[in-house]
């Protein structure tokens, strides 16, 4: 991969939420990473709906206006992939399959996740699958 090429990245829901909701958390740096155009986050209708759904969880106690504001800190920086094709790699957790399908369909370089059900598939994928910490080291933010 050329250094000048922006990485096409699929961030899983927990990674995005950690960056958006926990302003002093370990993944806060990701927010500036995508807002400064240092990567191209990929999004599908399914992943956008999942992020919206999880932001509305009562445990977060985030008012609807604040949810929309947080979405505004992510969605505009994403490239939406309209045509989603099934990834030939199947995840044992069907809820995570949408991430693999998005990475496959969007020509992702990297899928960033903390989910072990997805991480164990790294050797089978044509794109990298790694933790947020490994991604941070890859891009020289660590």
CATH homologous superfamily name?
5'-nuclease
SSE sequence, one letter per element: EHHEHHEHEHEH
What's the rounded overall pLDDT mean? 94
| CATH architecture group name | 3-Layer(aba) Sandwich
CATH class equals Alpha Beta
CATH level 3 topology: Rossmann fold
Largest sheet, if any?
5 strands, parallel
Describe this structure in words.
It contains seven helices and five strands; from the N terminus they run βααβααβαβαβα. The chain has 142 residues and is α/β, with parallel strands linked by helices. A five-stranded parallel beta sheet has the order 3-2-1-4-5. Strand 4, helix 6 and strand 5 form a beta-alpha-beta unit. The protein is globular, with a radius of gyration of 14 Å. The model has no long low-confidence stretch (mean pLDDT 94).
Topology:
Blueprint lengths: L7 E4 L1 H9 L7 H7 L4 E4 L1 H11 L8 H9 L6 E2 L16 H9 L4 E3 L3 H4 L8 E3 L1 H7 L4
What key phrases describe this protein's structure?
142 residues; 39% helix; 11% strand; Rossmann fold
Give a short overview.
The chain is of the alpha/beta class and 142 residues long. The protein contains 7 helices and 5 strands, in the order E-H-H-E-H-H-E-H-E-H-E-H.
């Amino acid at each position: 991969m050329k250094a000048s090429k922006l990485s096409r990245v699929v961030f899983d829901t927990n990674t995005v939420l950690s960056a958006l909701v926990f302003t002093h958390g370990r993944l806060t740096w990701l927010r500036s990473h995508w807002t400064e155009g240092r990567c191209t986050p990929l999004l599908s209708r399914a992943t956008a709906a999942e992020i919206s759904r999880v932001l509305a969880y009562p445990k977060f106690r985030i008012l609807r206006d604040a949810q929309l504001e947080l979405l505004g800190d992510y969605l505009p920086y994403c490239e939406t992939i309209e045509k989603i094709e099934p990834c030939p790699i199947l995840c044992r957790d069907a809820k995570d399959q949408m991430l693999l399908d998005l990475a496959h369909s969007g020509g992702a370089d990297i899928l960033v996740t903390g989910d072990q059900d997805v991480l164990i598939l790294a050797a089978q994928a044509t794109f990298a699958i790694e933790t947020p910490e490994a991604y941070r080291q890859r891009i020289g933010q660590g």
